[in-house]
Amino acid sequence: MNRNTDFLPFARPSIGPEEEEAVLRIMRSGWLTTGSEALAFEKEFAAYVGVPFALAVNSATSGLHLALEAAGIGKDDVVITSPYTFTSTAAVVRHLGAELAFSDTAPGSYNLDPDQLQRLLAGTRNCRAIIPVHIGGLPCDMDAITTLGKRYGCTVVEDAAHAFPVMTSQGFAGTLGELGVYSFYATKTITTGEGGMVVTANEKLARRMSLMRMHGIDRAVWDRYTARKASWRYEVSEAGFKYNLPDILAAIGRVQLRRAETFMEQRKRTAAIYNKAFSRTPGLGLPPEAPNHAWHLYSLRVDPALTGIDRDTLIETLADKGIGASMHFIPLHLMPYYAKRYSLAPGDFPNAVAMYEATLSLPIWQGMTEDDARRVTDAVLEAVGSGRK
Ligand SMILES: Cc1ncc(COP(=O)(O)O)c(C=O)c1O
């Protein structure tokens, strides 16, 4: 089949025989829900990123909710995050009855701007937490943000949904605040289909999250059913959630974790091909430079004044050529819920809006070949060239 007629998706998981074997092993084991496999995944993940506590959860959304709950966020508290994120980051704040304050991204960046964050913190009463979001896998300025967190008494909860594995000079992104949350959703750099991991170095926070993850029950189901002695008793000490990761998914996660470095190298190669191909074309903006990047997303910016084509038309043109491009993210203050609740206008966060209007996400995933990447660069450059005529 002519490869050019094949659809090239924006994201695609890399699942091989090892993952298949791992799932079969669990299916044949007689234990399908959370048990020894999830515990092993947690232990291996914690060792990988270098933290004492890792809790496997059924999504990053659940993880963010658990993390903020454990940090004591509740009614009358304010949590600051960036408008340039997926709704989960902010929705969990509302689940706890707390209020949001958005702080704009830095000019030309998808991540929080520490200067604007500082001004907002100085003028906000009751701010109890900051959620920096490492968009696309590019770490925020965590030195500045953790310093501000300490100065203003705010817990820093990293939304590292996109940022595994990214080493910084201080350690892995996701381990730099009090709490960090990773996503294993199907498009992420490692995946369990749906899933996530919360990490912390704080034992008290870990204990609270462990309790709330499983109905507020004082002992794990795993322990109750597998203990040799009669052990049906349990106590409910809180109105908890049900956010555990089943063993079938944890088994996939353990294999993906072992493959994470290889995945990242493959993603890096695709990003390098894109960067090289686009760097000399006026009107195309490369992703912000960074020594370390998980390359969950490759975000390209297009300036219609210089290229003759706007972002939406470019995405459609690529789709016509069988290339799946996407867009991350429509800033939250443009969404009816947040706009209405906080009386926000599009112009309130101009940097986020400028990035949103120009950006598209190109295909990037571990199984992509060099030919696949070149098919994308050829299609983009052709669209830009013909737009300019
Ligand atoms: C920045 C960000 N945070 C949180 C989430 C939530 O992740 P999950 O789908 O694992 O709940 C996403 C999902 O894509 C995301 O992009």
CATH superfamily of the largest domain: Type I PLP-dependent aspartate aminotransferase-like (Major domain)
At the fold tier of CATH, the topology name of the largest domain is: Aspartate Aminotransferase, domain 2
**Radius of gyration, CA atoms, in whole angstroms:** 22 Å
Please mark out the parts with pLDDT under 50 across 5 or more consecutive residues, or reply none: none
- In total, the number of strands is 12
Strand-residue fraction? 5-15%
Distance between the termini: 33 Å
The percent of residues in helical segments reads 40-55%
**Largest sheet features:** 7 strands, mixed
Q: Can you lay out the helices and strands and say which pair or pack?
A:
Blueprint: H1 17-29, H2 36-49, E1 53-57, H3 60-70, E2 78-81, H4 87-95, E3 99-102, H5 114-122, E4 127-131, H6 142-151, E5 155-159, E6 167-168, E7 171-172, E8 179-183, E9 196-200, H7 203-213, H8 221-226, H9 247-278, E10 284-285, E11 298-302, H10 304-307, H11 311-320, H12 336-341, H13 350-358, E12 359-362, H14 370-388
The structure holds pyridoxal-5'-phosphate.
Residues 59-61, 85-86, 88-89, 133, 159, 161-162, 183, 185, 196 line the site of pyridoxal-5'-phosphate (PLP).
